[in-house]
Amino acid sequence: MILLGVNIDHCATVRQARYRQAAATAGGAIEPDPVAFALLAEQAGADGITVHLREDRRHIQERDVWRLRESIATRLNFEMACAPAMVEFALRLRPESICLVPESREEVTTEGGLDVVKNRDRVKACIDAMNAAGIATSLFIDPVAAQIELGAQLGAPWIELHTGAYANAYHGAGRAAEFDRLVSGTRLGLQCGLTVNAGHGINYVNIAEVRTLPGLHELNIGHSIVSRALFTGVGEAVREMKARMNP
Ligand code: PXP
Fold this sequence. Notes:
By secondary structure, this protein is an alpha/beta fold. The protein contains 11 helices and 8 strands. Helix 6 links the parallel strand 5 (136-141) and strand 6 (158-162).
């Protein structure tokens, strides 16, 4: 069984599109509420809830994260930049896991994997702090041997392989090569003793192939589930994805 982490960032994106400036004074419902989305996703079988508290707070807000911490019944996976302020926040929040992601203000969403090799010392400091607190660290990295091996060496228990390049190549000539990179990355991660997750750009179509990656533990899926939920409701969107992940 591959587990499903539902990333609810884009529910908050829709809310912020309307209420970024005026939430406090709007009166009435500030909708859509990402916490309500998370609870419906859990009821439909989500195995965990993922949020990314970005430096610019463009979608998820701190208050959302604290409300999630109090209300969800599954696991909270907290995506964050490798920065001292976020480490301090995570240690207070105490999510079940964190996922270290690269962050730059210009990108619309997370575009490339974390460069563990280049940021070795900062990444190690984050992993050490989380290990000491009993919080599992996942590293969101491209399927590149040097990144995977160093991640394991630094003591991270999990990696999340970035499936974005594969998803982008899905309808073109590069798809097979990108999928092979993911297969090799997954195998190497397992050989290094890591729990291997994957995420970014996974949808109701490419899941048919992504699910065949050997030994996958969990997929983190956001955009396609939030989009589908507009038409079918949250429960159906989550159930359909889970059925396709584990037919
Ligand atoms: N995993 C990580 C680390 C992410 O940052 C994101 C969001 O960019 C996702 C998974 C989910 O990606 P998507 O919204 O494309 O499903």
